[in-house]
Fold this protein.
Amino acid sequence: MKINLAKSAGFCFGVKRAIDIAYKTLAGNKNVCMLGNIVHNEDVARSLREAGINRCKKLGCGKNKIFLIRAHGASLDIANKAGRLGYKIVNATCPMVKEIHKIACSAERKGYTIIVIGDKKHDEVIGIIGQLKRKALIIDSMEGAPLGKIEKIKKAAIVAQSTQNIEKVMRIFYFLDSHIKELKLFNTICRPTRLKQQEMKKMPLDNDIMIIIGSKTSANTQRLYEISKSLNDKSYLVQSKKDIKPEWFKGIKTAGITAGASTPDDTTKEVISCIRKIA
């Protein structure tokens, strides 16, 4: 069986940068806390916990402590609260996510209602709307678009969660464009996401089976799986080699493999090694 690994598989720049910042921060101060995980990957989260990062549910006294803002960003309220409590703040927000913050805030100052196309409960989306003074509208699907609210908007600016599917974003944009008189679209889907999705529109057609490696909590990984599954029914999302089932590979001649933007190379190598033993 031939194994074909996607060129874009694995860490994107923003994830690698955030993890590097986390370890450098730990090297200078062992009292570091985060609200949640640095990225959506269990292996990365476990490694950082073992290294000494404290994952907390709420912020307490921040004296002699560091509050690390994760790759997905955080709301202004959270960052300001950490400052008031005495934390030193280290910001590991992905630069591309920071750019979305700037775009949204600039458009809001010009009088636009901000519409975010993304997953309503995702940390990145919560961070984006948390930069704004007025309430933003979040749309996660065509079916979930609140037409009553949309028709009351006179002018709006759209930003997208950086890991969204571009085709889905454009479908929602065209729908909104037919109901809002003045509408601006900022394509804020990041380049690594676009590259990964472009590969995923071809690889499932060129391989008998597709293995997508990453966490089910990872939005970008989930998106890759959805695209692959729509093109090749033999597409499987696995978190680690433990999820691999030998029966998937009976009669298989070519296996395509990719990994989400928050999936470590070591995890991908372990999965490939496991598949080679099966083949």
The first helix runs from residue 13 to 28. Residues 13-94 form a domain with the Rossmann fold fold (CATH 3.40.50.11270).
